[in-house]
Amino acid sequence: MDSIMSGVTRFRCEVFPNQQQLYQRLVREGQQPQALVISCADSRVAPELITQSGPGDLFVTRNVGNIVPPFSQANGGVSSAIEYAVDALKVRDIVVCGHSDCGAMKALLSPGSLDSMPNVTAWLRHSHAARQVIESAYPADLDPDQKAAALAQENVLFQINHLRSHPSVAAALARGELTLHGWFFDLTSGDILALDGDSGFRRVATGQPLPVAVRPAERRVANTFFLHAAE
Ligand SMILES: [Zn+2]
Q1: 217 falls in which pLDDT band (50, 70, 90)?
Q2: Ion ligand 1 — residues with CB under 5 Å?
Q3: Structural domains in the chain (count)
Q4: 106 and 24 part of one domain
Q5: Which domain holds residue 81?
Q6: pTM as predicted
Q7: For position 199, what pLDDT does the model report?
């Protein structure tokens, strides 16, 4: 803990004085984060660092495997963060961020390694569909790192689908007020790959449009219904 405690002191004495006005404004006016980021709890995947964001920029929830449980009546931390970010803070974007060398994805590929961890085992069931896709639809000769990376990317795709089952998200998408992003952070190169609709992951590059996983709806189903009803 020594380095953590010296970090606390350094923040208070050297960093905070330069940001005090920003913090005071964020207290006075309240937070208005640009995006909700749902990332893995892995110590190497810090959303504020990889997006170079400051205080007040991101609303963040992190968990093992960057998982979004599908909407259910059971209460949960991820579900509450989603609802609060979308309904109260009115974020315009949600990013689900997976990464390379993910311990959760590696564990999914060798289930025996989780025997002593009943909670992790149960939590990772939300990623079983992604694992089954890897096991049955990907080449069998992928090396372990490739397999874990492919699983991490498939997992992002499935968690985005879960995200869409949450009423607050579905409604904001239908109103055209929310965009969903699927990211994969490569720990070796520092690259962020972003999900581009159904066409896979592409590297995020300056000057290029940001690939987007799910765009806001351009037309609601009810509009179609009323259009036909009026004919
Ligand atoms: Zn991870």
Answers
A1: confident
A2: 40, 42, 102, 104
A3: 2
A4: no
A5: 31-230
A6: 0.92
A7: 84
Q: Do residue 89 and residue 150 come from a single domain?
A: yes
| Cα 106 to middle of ligand 1, angstroms | 9
pLDDT band, residue 67 (cuts 50/70/90): very high
Q: Are residues 18 and 58 in the same domain?
A: no
Quote the percentage of the chain above a pLDDT of 90: 83
Are residues 18 and 53 both part of a single domain? no
214: which residues sit within 8 A by CB, 6+ positions away?
A: 160, 164, 173, 179, 180, 197
Cα(194)–Cα(60) distance, integer angstroms: 18
Q: What is the pLDDT of residues 169-190, one digit of tens each?
A: 999 999 999 999 999 999 999 9
What's the 23 CA to ligand 1 centre distance in angstroms? Answer: 30
Question: Residues 3, 107: one domain?
Answer: no
CA 150 – ligand 1 centroid, Å: 13
Cα(94) to centroid(ligand 1), Å = 18
Cα 110 to ligand 1 centroid, rounded to whole Å: 15
Comparing 102 with 75, the larger pLDDT belongs to 102
State the Cα–Cα distance between residues 133 and 137, nearest whole angstrom.
5
Q: How far is the CA of 229 from the centre of ligand 1 (A)?
A: 49
Alpha-carbon span 155 to 128, nearest angstrom: 9
Are 55 and 20 found together in one domain?
no
**How many Å lie between the centroid of ligand 1 and the Cα of residue 100?**
8
Q: In terms of domains, do 109 and 10 share one?
A: no
Distance of CA 22 from the midpoint of ligand 1 (Å)? 32
* Mean of pLDDT over the chain: 93
**Residue bearing tokens 């923040």:** 11
166/189 same-domain check: yes
Indicate the burial class of 121 (C-beta count within 10 angstroms; 0-12, 13-18, 19 or more). Answer: middle
